[in-house]
Design brief:
The chain is of the alpha/beta class and 286 residues long. The chain has 9 helices and 15 strands. Bound molecules: zinc ion.
């Protein structure tokens, strides 16, 4: 009788442990990771762009949303850090490799403000994105030169391009945004090309440059690289992509200027951290 009751107790204990693991398993084995002040995560979404910026006051910005199907990668990445709300979404331009996963993201997070260049584009994915945005009653803020997305004593996110009302190529509508955090600065370019680089006026210097158009030779002119004068260049690019990105000439220009190159196809998701003075970087594939 005594032996039996001990056995039942053991069974009961096992049942409780199994139930606990089922209920809390994800949290137990994947505890929420801490964001250390200011961080930028260039998320590895293959041949596409998706960048999460974690601002020091706890706000989150997402610049682009990868290809269709990448929304789940972005969601998993943000959930790892306990993110429930995206305060700012910046969609650089309507090509699929930049907006593909945004509908999924909008369906899965509480969203603050959305910024997009004002341009019409005929694609099922873009139409679906616009429908998703309006289904929640969100409005779209027009992204253009001079628009300041957010600014306080510590940081500022300012749009430098598009500048013109019309361009002859969809890439040229790309949002170029400069983010400043204390003494450090970061330039985001979407798929902007040389015509956009030439149009930029004023101080476009930055410590970290997201290389335009996945390292294509349509972008990253010598003059532009000299003006930005970055220490680190991040290339969002997929392994063995059909465009042969990044192009050798761009890699050569970066190397000639002793700019540290980080690439999502080689380094995986790239994490940049800063205290506002120093910048550190690491790739997921160390
Ligand atoms: Zn692209």
């Amino acid at each position: 009788m005594k032996i039996k009751s001990i056995k039942s107790l053991l069974i009961l204990a096992v049942v409780f442990v199994v139930a606990f693991i089922i209920n809390h398993g994800t949290a137990m084995f994947n505890p929420v990771e801490k964001i250390d002040g200011f961080e930028i995560h260039y998320i590895d979404v293959g041949q596409a762009d998706a960048t999460a910026v974690f601002l020091p006051d706890g706000k989150t910005m997402l610049i682009d949303g990868g290809n269709s199907g990448d929304g789940i990668i972005i969601k998993k990445h943000l959930k790892r850090y306990g993110i429930k709300r995206i305060d700012y979404i910046v969609s650089t331009h309507p090509h699929e490799d930049h907006i593909g996963g945004l509908s999924y993201v909008i369906n899965n997070f509480d969203i603050g403000e959305i910024y997009m260049p004002k341009v019409s584009y005929d694609s099922a994915i873009y139409t679906q994105l616009l429908e998703t945005i309006s289904s929640y009653g969100y409005t779209i803020n027009s992204a253009k030169k001079g628009v300041c997305i957010t600014e306080n004593d510590e940081y500022k996110a300012e749009i430098l391009s598009p500048i013109r009302d019309e361009y002859d190529d969809m890439n040229h509508y790309s949002v170029i945004m400069k983010l400043t955090y204390k003494n450090t600065s970061y330039l985001f370019t979407g798929d902007a090309e040389v015509v956009n680089e030439k149009d930029l006026s004023g101080d476009i210097s930055a410590d970290v440059l997201k290389v335009g158009h996945h390292g294509s030779d349509t972008s990253s002119s010598e003059d532009f690289l000299d003006r930005v004068n970055p220490e680190i260049a991040v290339i969002h690019v997929g392994k063995n992509n059909s465009y042969n990105h990044p192009h050798n000439v761009v890699i050569k220009r970066l190397n000639e200027r002793n700019i540290k190159i980080l690439r999502t196809d080689m380094d995986g998701t790239i994490i940049i951290k800063s205290d506002g003075i120093n910048i550190t970087y690491e790739g997921a594939r160390k």
